[in-house]
Hints:
The chain is an alpha/beta fold.
Amino acid sequence: MISEIKQFEKDSLPLEPDGGERLNLTRQITSYIEQYLKDLPQASAFEEDDTPAKALSSLFPDEQGRAKEELIQLLDASLVKPGINMSSGGDLAYIPGGGLYVSALADYLAAATNKYSTIYSVSPGAIRIENMLVRWMCNLVGYDDKSFGHLSSGGSMANLTAIVAARDAKQLLHEPGKNVIYFTHQVHHCLLKALHISGMDPCRLQLIPMNPDLSMDVKGLEQLIKQHKAEGLHPSLVVASAGTTDVGVVDDLDAVADIAEAHNMWYHVDGAYGGFFLLTAHGRKIMKGISRADSIVMDPHKGLFLPYGSGAVLLKDGHHLLKSFYMEANYLQDTHVPLEQIGDYEEISPADISAELSRHFRGLRLWLPLQLYGIKPFRAALDEKLLLARYFYRKVQEIGFEVGPDPDLSVTIFRYVPASYKNDTKKTNQYNRNLMKAIQNEKKVFIAGTEIDGVYWMRLAVLSFRTHLEHIDTLLSSLKEKTASD
Ligand SMILES: *Cc1c(COP(=O)(O)O)cnc(C)c1O
């Protein structure tokens, strides 16, 4: 038996490389990344050909490993190159972010030390880091000390968490057919998923009319509520957006708060895209009233440029998370804090207020850049994005494009109507689809489109920290050149 154990120990040794081998591997990966980042300003914003990615599907693990040089080459060709280059400043589609380098290093530190950011007594430092960041965000939105929340993997999970808390707080599954949930057609689809996953399909889901700029028609909401009350229904939950994905519109958060308070409804604000613009003066103005929401979502992997995998959910009354997510288990009895002893949010364990148990220590990738650089460069980058979107909005009209509503934040829509297609939506739509494709194929910048009431629009979303004036000018000159003869 002993000799067998020894043999297995020997065979498993590659899992713990020695110092020399570790340094060697680390150097190869960092020098690959160094080259990648040096080439990034010139790199394609988009590679449509996914043939190299196919090589990955057949590469099942063998009993023996492969050479690291071979693997790095494979990853470069099959993983890094194909698809949209989300690290590029030319990424102007969907909601970009970028991926801060120092956050990648924080992930390295977090993973190499494998801190358990789940239960306070197991990793008090990790929990204090995450809970401090949550408190910082609560302060940013204007919540008081009763508020709390947690860091999630992204906006979808954060929205789901908030919806579950709202469900339990308002007992939405008690006579569900009587409970009405209100949102506009512009709400992110993850909220519809959240309503489905949390079992709220039997509730009455009500679309709120929108203003011409695609923001919520708050008077329309109030009318619906009054009408529903008269019918004996319970208006229970309203979802507003602090920056819609489609057109970047911020609903009138203060006015929605008035209505939610008057009718004793749960008020949720999805700020996954727009929330961190609260760091700017413009953002604070346009999101006035956000602190009156019962729950708020914001995504550090969007507005703070972190690598993907970072969202946050904040509750005005943090206790609601305990009510929905606290649960005991006998194998955790030594580390668990009894519910009645939980008071101090500084030491509260994410496991007690979220759906996760073991989780990535995702706080460090947010903590390190904020501590290292301070808030100022983040605020500057966000202010820059706001101005770039405004600059584009003005310039693109000067070269003959139609535009959507004035950008509230950093997303805007635009399209070109060739003189000969004036009254032909179908042909104009196709023209703009082709134009978007032509811009994509140039590979200098990457944009995407959306369809609103049967009209196709190209869409500009400026949020990567690497997007600057030069990228916007590149797009503008391509648009001008490609429409010159139409
Ligand atoms: C991106 C986004 C989401 C979804 O967030 P993920 O982090 O992608 O899961 C939700 N709401 C809005 C407004 C978004 O822009």
